[in-house]
């Protein structure tokens, strides 16, 4: 039979595992293969390494029970962009950076902010398509769970807005304690119809680690430039932590409209422009 070089096997009984794999288009027989696996050994939960695309049925069932795939560890940090993640994945697993982007674009309309920042254990030999589907399946389950716990249901429109705000908070805040304060500045500025004017929105995509200069602010005409355009960017600018999501949903109640980095590496917040200028001088 033909198969991918690696495949994911869920926890469960032999019958449950066979049912799952049949649903995933593996050519297994619910009754005959269930009996054979009882003789060969129960399939291992996790990633299984098949090594080759064409196998006899016996070889396939044996590998299903005995061939754990070697794993590599990849950590995706909050505030990073998928462009940086895909570059790291392409290098670590000898995959195509361009194909990772193509598979991502084909699988979801969400440009950024969907993939969950955490540590992943990924099997060697996985294809671009299976890797993207693995990351997105986990992401959809994660975001749905977080929002259902807070709101009781998953509302896609509300989720999109909060993730955009959370991504700006993630880029701007010096630490988790500041996040609700940065969130309050965003909401206060939006309420007053002020431009956000935040550097972090220009650290989108490939510009994740690019220093935001006056020249860049003047020349970047994309909708991410909140010095040029009012309102929120059309998409999140980076991956977001749970703390940033909570801050976006539950901003601190303040009158702050400005903040500037201080000598301690955190930010000093203020309500008016005169005080803000004084804080910049200090």
TrEMBL record:
InterPro entries: MLTG-like. GO terms for molecular function: lytic endotransglycosylase activity. Pfam families: YceG. The record marks 172 as: Important for catalytic activity. Signal peptide: none annotated. Its EC number is 4.2.2.29. GO terms for cellular component: plasma membrane. GO terms for biological process: cell wall organization; peptidoglycan biosynthetic process. It comes from the Bacteria. It is an enzyme of class 4 (lyase). Keywords: Cell inner membrane, Cell membrane, Cell wall biogenesis/degradation, Lyase, Membrane, Transmembrane, Transmembrane helix. It catalyses: a peptidoglycan chain = a peptidoglycan chain with N-acetyl-1,6-anhydromuramyl-[peptide] at the reducing end + a peptidoglycan chain with N-acetylglucosamine at the non-reducing end. PANTHER family: ENDOLYTIC MUREIN TRANSGLYCOSYLASE (PTHR30518:SF2). Functions as a peptidoglycan terminase that cleaves nascent peptidoglycan strands endolytically to terminate their elongation. NCBIfam families: endolytic transglycosylase MltG. Belongs to the transglycosylase MltG family. This is Endolytic murein transglycosylase.
């Amino acid at each position: 039979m033909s198969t991918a070089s690696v495949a994911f096997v869920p926890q469960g009984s032999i019958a449950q595992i066979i049912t799952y794999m049949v649903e995933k288009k593996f050519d297994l027989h619910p009754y005959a293969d269930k009996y054979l696996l009882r003789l060969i050994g129960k399939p291992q939960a996790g990633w299984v390494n098949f090594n080759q695309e064409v196998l006899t049925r016996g070889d396939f069932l044996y590998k299903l029970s005995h061939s754990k795939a070697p794993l590599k560890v990849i950590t995706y940090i909050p505030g990073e962009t998928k462009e940086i993640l895909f570059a790291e994945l392409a290098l670590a697993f000898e995959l195509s950076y361009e194909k990772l982007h193509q598979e991502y674009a084909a699988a979801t309309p969400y440009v950024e902010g969907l993939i969950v920042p955490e540590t992943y254990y990924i099997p060697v030999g996985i294809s671009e398509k299976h890797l993207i589907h693995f990351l997105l399946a986990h992401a959809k389950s994660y975001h749905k769970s977080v929002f259902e716990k807070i709101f009781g249901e998953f509302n896609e429109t509300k989720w999109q807005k909060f993730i955009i705000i959370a991504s700006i908070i993630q880029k701007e805040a010096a630490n988790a304690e500041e996040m609700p304060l940065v969130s309050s500045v965003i909401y206060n500025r939006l309420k007053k119809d002020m431009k956000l004017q935040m550097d972090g929105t220009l650290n989108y995509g490939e510009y994740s680690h690019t220093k935001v200069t006056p020249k860049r602010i003047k020349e970047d005409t994309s909708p991410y430039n909140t010095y040029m355009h009012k309102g929120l960017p059309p998409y999140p600018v980076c991956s977001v932590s749970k703390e940033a999501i909570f801050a976006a949903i539950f901003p601190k109640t303040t009158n702050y409209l400005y903040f500037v980095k201080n000598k301690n590496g955190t930010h000093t917040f203020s309500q008016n422009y005169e005080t803000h200028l004084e804080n910049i001088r200090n």
